[in-house]
TrEMBL record:
The protein, known as: isochorismate synthase
Catalysis: reaction(s): chorismate = isochorismate
Pfam families: Chorismate_bind
Record keywords, A-Z: Isomerase
Bias kind Basic and acidic residues: ranges: 224-233
Domain of life (superkingdom): Bacteria
Length: 400
């Protein structure tokens, strides 16, 4: 087998040629990546969640690709779960295509409204049960054992026909100019039925470009309004909210603490800023650093950060344990990370949110909310409902 890189293609062509089960697709605001075939798989057996062993195996696979005559710069691509003890999906593809950014305005105009026929929808857990879980989380916070916990819920949509993943992916891309659109096959074995993780994440976990490191944690959110004046009021209130600024500060400090050992310099803005998606306002902070050791690669940085308090909580170990007790489903790749890292150590890894898993006639949507002192269960429920809209609208559905 030979690994090759192709750059002379258009971004829209990569989106058009996406194939469920055989393509890895990843689009950022500045470039588009599509990968096909499998040269080497990063096996899970024997890793047992040990990050250093996982990184060693990735580097060995990239070296093997280079020795096999890879043209250009071989990559590892794929998805990591919320709990790295779970199954991972990382591989070195045979063919890599790079292009510039997607034509977002064109994709917006061409957006197709209906991607589902008849369907049934089931919330997991039910809304009242989710509010009860938030109440339990607040009790842990009041006791002093937790400072923050992120609790999530899921929507299961079953349909009469197969899920049209390429069309949903195209719709997601058309509404995500400032974020990251992705699709990756996450089935455990090639003989299993196809299972696709896809979404439109607004959150960069970390990127490395030469010596430069960037992280962009988001925490503190409020749903958008279709009324411009109300939308502006909500944005201003979020920026001024003591509760949301505290939630955001917890995440930023955790990210900074994880990056400092790797960086010669690290710049952190004094104040958060606002970023918007089609459905949400978020508090955002962009951290920029310069690596102290040029041998540190993007996957090493991503694993050092993951999971941040933006998707888990703090302290991390207790928050994760409480999540597993309170959430009635297994997160899997939701709140994990998706991205790529090359043989030179450069790469991008994003937080796997605003996402779904599609398998045959079932698609599972996921959304979570950060719980801190002052959180209200009904408002956290409303926040998750708003976050579901990213995927629901991509399927031509406007409401739960």
């Amino acid at each position: 087998m030979q690994v090759k890189t192709v750059k002379s293609v258009k971004a829209e062509q990569l989106l058009d040629e996406y194939k469920v089960g055989s393509s890895f697709f990843f689009a950022s605001p500045s470039r588009t990546l599509s990968a096909e075939g499998i040269f080497a798989t990063i096996e899970r057996d024997g890793v047992h969640g040990e990050k250093t062993e996982l990184i060693r195996r990735v580097k060995a696979a990239l070296k093997q690709a280079s020795q096999a005559g890879a043209a250009g710069n071989p990559l590892v691509v794929g998805a990591m779960p919320f709990d790295i003890q779970d199954s991972i999906h990382l591989f070195v593809p045979e063919t890599v295509h790079w292009a510039g950014p997607l034509p977002f305005e064109q994709l917006q105009r061409e957006r197709e409204r209906s991607c589902l026929g008849e369907y049934e929808i089931a919330p997991v857990p039910a809304p009242k049960a989710y509010e009860y879980a938030v109440e339990q989380g607040l009790k842990e916070i009041a006791s002093g054992s937790l400072e923050k916990i992120v609790l999530s819920r899921s929507l299961h949509l079953s349909t009469g026909g197969a899920i049209d993943v390429p069309r949903i992916l195209r719709n997601l891309a058309g509404n995500n100019e400032k974020g990251y659109t992705f699709a990756v096959d996450v089935r455990h074995h090639r003989q299993d039925s196809q299972k696709t993780l896809l979404g439109a994440s607004p959150e960069l976990l970390v990127s490395r470009d030469g010596q430069q490191v960037t992280a962009n944690p988001l925490a503190g959110s409020v749903p958008r309004s279709k009324d411009p004046e109300e939308d502006g009021r909500r944005a201003a209130a979020l920026l001024a909210s003591e509760k949301d600024r505290h939630e955001h500060a917890v995440v930023v400090e955790a990210v900074a603490q994880s990056l400092r050992p790797f960086c010669r310099t690290l710049t952190i803005p004094d104040e958060p800023s606002l970023v918007q998606t089609e459905t949400m306002w978020h508090l955002s902070t962009v951290l920029n650093g310069e690596l102290a050791d040029p041998s540190v690669d993007s996957l090493t940085l991503a694993l050092a950060l993951h999971p941040t308090p933006a998707v888990c909580g703090t302290p991390t170990a207790l928050a994760k344990k409480t999540i597993q007790e309170l959430e009635p489903f297994h997160r899997g790749f939701f709140t994990g990370m998706v991205g790529w890292s090359d043989s030179q150590g450069n790469g991008e890894w994003i937080v796997t949110i605003r996402c779904a898993e599609a398998e045959a006639r079932l698609i599972k949507l996921f959304a979570g909310a950060g719980i801190v002192a002052g959180s209200a269960p009904e408002k956290e429920l409303a926040e998750t409902s708003a976050k579901f809209r990213t995927m629901l609208q991509a399927m031509g559905l406007n409401d739960e």
